[in-house]
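Hi Y.,

Following your request, here is the sequence exactly as I used it, all 242 residues.
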Amino acid sequence: MNKNLIHDRFAKNLKSYDENAKIQKRMAERLITFVQNKQPKKILEIGCGTGFLTKLINKEFKFESFMAIDIVKDCEQYIKNISSNIIFTPADIEEFITSNNETYDLIISNASLQWVENFEDVINSLKNFLNPNGELIFSTFGTENFREIYHIIGASLKYYSINDLQKMFPQSIIEPEIHIMAFDTPKDVLKHLQLTGVNAIENTHWTKKDLTKFENGYKNLCSKRPTLTYNPVYIKILSPNG
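Below is the corresponding structure, written out as tokens. Let me know if you'd prefer a different format.
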């Protein structure tokens, strides 16, 4: 996992993210419905980005403290525009958990934890930061995510099946979804991936030959308009302390 590449791709496309990340916005709206405790006093949001989920949290809950973290420091301006009461901290969650001494009533994250190197270890560490009756609620992606891209170029993040997730987190609530976006051309698919920053899988510069291969791959795969599959997975884990 190239954390510098992830940082740079998302940082470069912050201005275009809100307009193009339609599925991630829908995921944030769905994710907030999983919160059972409507009065969490201390909140931690992981991978806040431009604040899709942050805005909903700020609107829904009367918190005493709310920390939002993201690997991209430039996200701070977006979070401060939502509320001056939200503390923004630039941090990689895998480094943050090694030094954090705080506990929270709600730890929440939308479409970001698929980028960590040690997924299961991070989730298990976060569980230990929950107060009694606290909730860890996050969305990630399942094995059908970007299946078209994997079929054509063979590159993908490591996604886990529902069975794998149930074995990792046996006491959790897990709910998957499928969303299929249609585009006019394969180049439009690439543009969508670039403008949302999710092309941070590999650091390669495409040649004209690569682009032609990609376009032909889509023509063979999709008889009509090229599609892109999103496979959100929502996971809720309650505090082991209560």
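The radius of gyration is 18 Å.

Thanks again,
Q.
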